[in-house]
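Deliverable D2.4 — example input (structure tokens):
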């Protein structure tokens, strides 16, 4: 892997077995790996690694010129990002992690790797992660909303605009982020806090809003007059995909969720082909909502549990 001399010098202190907390200053190196190796999973987005660092105590380091993100809560590493690692190299890494008192398992393992290396079964127990499947949509399809499956979405959008003719969509700015934090707190405290895993998401969302520009995030807000009714936050994931990190709406305003989804797709139509709308976390209502938009595909990942 080719890295600039300055980047190599910075990365020297991150070489295995040394792992460090993720900071804003680490963006250049971490994003450099994503730019070169074009991951499909939203887990490798710098914004996600950084914003979720508190709930999962995320750390990062470099192992044989590959980027490794370590989830210290679940004691599991993300599958190394870089030149493809062989099963033999992966086993060696697991053993070295274990010797250093860290978890030896791997998450975010793509199906294609398991298909290419079936012998991996000899060293790891494979666990499927349906709850962590990532929903990938055609941005064009979300803009056009054609077909019977999406007809109801189009109707709800039309109803919203008839009900609230003074609605508008605005880019997220410093001033609007204050309103976004207020709405996020209201939504969380009213009903979301009872959902599994949402507390961690809320922590990550506030982190994203606190360090919005530094992380490289973009966002849209759906306004009715001067009031914020819904918002979305996103960033590029790879050359043809944007990652929708967060999307929230005031449920009392029927159609607001469909409008912010539609407006986000329209805003990003000329910037990408696909939208990664992340996982449903096993929350049935969220799964139903994501499936109702007829995803292009589900990007499935797996966990490798080390046998030795």
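Example output (designed residues):
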């Amino acid at each position: 892997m080719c890295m600039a001399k300055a980047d190599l010098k910075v990365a020297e202190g991150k070489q295995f077995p040394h792992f460090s907390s993720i900071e804003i200053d680490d963006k250049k190196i971490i994003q450099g790996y994503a730019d070169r190796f074009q991951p499909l999973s939203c887990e490798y987005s710098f914004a996600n690694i950084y914003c979720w660092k508190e709930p999962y105590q995320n750390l990062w380091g470099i192992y044989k010129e590959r980027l490794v993100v370590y989830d210290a809560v679940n004691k599991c590493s993300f599958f190394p990002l870089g030149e493809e690692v062989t099963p033999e190299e992966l086993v060696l890494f697991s053993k070295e992690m274990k010797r250093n008192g860290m978890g030896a398992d791997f998450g975010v393992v793509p199906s294609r790797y398991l298909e290419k290396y079936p012998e991996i079964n000899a060293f790891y127990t494979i666990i499927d992660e349906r709850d962590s499947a990532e929903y990938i949509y055609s941005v064009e399809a979300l803009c056009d909303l054609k077909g019977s499956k999406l007809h109801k979405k189009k109707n709800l959008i039309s109803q919203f605009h008839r009900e609230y003719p003074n609605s508008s969509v605005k880019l997220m700015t410093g001033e609007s982020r204050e309103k976004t934090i207020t709405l996020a707190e209201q939504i969380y405290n009213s009903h979301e806090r009872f959902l599994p895993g949402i507390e961690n998401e809320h922590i990550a969302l506030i982190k994203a809003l606190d360090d919005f520009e530094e992380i490289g995030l973009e966002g849209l807000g759906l306004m009715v007059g001067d009031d914020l009714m819904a918002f979305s936050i996103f960033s590029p994931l790879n050359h043809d995909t944007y990652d929708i990190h967060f999307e929230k709406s005031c449920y009392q305003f029927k159609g607001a969720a469909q409008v912010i989804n539609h407006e986000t797709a329209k805003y990003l139509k000329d910037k990408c082909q696909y939208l990664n709308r992340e996982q449903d976390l096993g929350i049935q209502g969220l799964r139903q909502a994501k499936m109702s938009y007829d995803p292009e595909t589900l990007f499935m990942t797996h966990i490798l549990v080390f046998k030795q």
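The mean pLDDT is 93.
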